[in-house]
Specification:
Elements: H1 2-27, H2 32-41, E1 48-53, H3 60-66, E2 73-77, E3 82-96, E4 98-104, H4 110-125, H5 130-137, E5 152-153, H6 159-165, E6 175-180, E7 185-191, E8 196-207
Antiparallel strand pairs: 1-8, 2-3, 3-5, 3-8, 4-7, 6-7
């Protein structure tokens, strides 16, 4: 009985010391670069730098972290392990949201793209929903979502697409087209949301 008690105490002491050591390491991390260097010493797929966005991530954990200050550490204990989350950076980033239909000119003839474009524009004017048209025509993998891009941070899509997404002359629920000669790509785009500033954080996750 005494041996078991001693063993239990030793295990608890070792665990406490390990967690204290990790927290001391986390206290020294103030930049993403430092976080990435720390991850090089802790090889595990569970350890990583995460990005949480107040529009995309609605879990209790994400909400709690988004509402804490830079430098804060949140520790979550389960039966199997202890996970530490440290908020490294917090920023307000411009985001946009569109729905689009994409055509790859490298696999589809230009004349066919023109025909499809005309069919799509006419169908939309006749009252056909854009998401139904995207599901039918788009060559992008988001066709199943009706072409919805979700909220995207600036730099997520080709420059030509984003220039039009941020163009205030393009009103909501209006269609415009973008052609990118360099990649032989063609987009039919519906502006679905106004430009929005969204809170975003980068978090270092370390699992004991």
């Amino acid at each position: 009985m005494k041996t078991l008690l001693k063993l239990t105490i030793c295990l608890l002491t070792a665990t406490t010391l390990a967690q204290t050591s990790i927290k001391k390491e986390l206290d020294t991390i103030t930049t993403v670069e430092q976080a990435e260097k720390l991850l090089e010493t802790k090889k595990s797929r569970k350890n990583k730098v995460l990005i949480f966005n107040e529009e995309k991530h609605k879990t209790k954990l994400a909400t709690a972290l988004l509402n804490t200050n830079v430098g804060s550490i949140k520790t979550v204990k389960t039966e199997f392990n202890t996970t530490h989350y440290k908020v490294i950076t917090k920023s307000d980033e411009r985001h946009y949201r569109i729905s689009y239909i994409y055509f790859d000119g490298n696999t589809l003839e230009a004349s066919k793209i023109v025909d499809y474009k005309n069919d799509i524009l006419k169908s939309y004017e006749d009252g056909i929903r854009f998401d139904d048209l995207a599901k039918r025509y788009s060559m992008d993998r988001n066709a199943k979502r009706g072409g919805d891009s979700g909220w995207l941070k600036e730099g997520s899509m080709p420059t030509e697409v984003e220039e039009q997404a941020f163009n205030l002359d393009n009103k909501l629920n209006t269609i415009y087209t973008v052609r990118i000669p360099e990649t032989n790509s063609f987009y039919i785009i519906l502006k679905t949301e106004r430009i929005k500033t969204i809170k975003e954080i980068k978090v270092l996750k370390i699992v004991d």
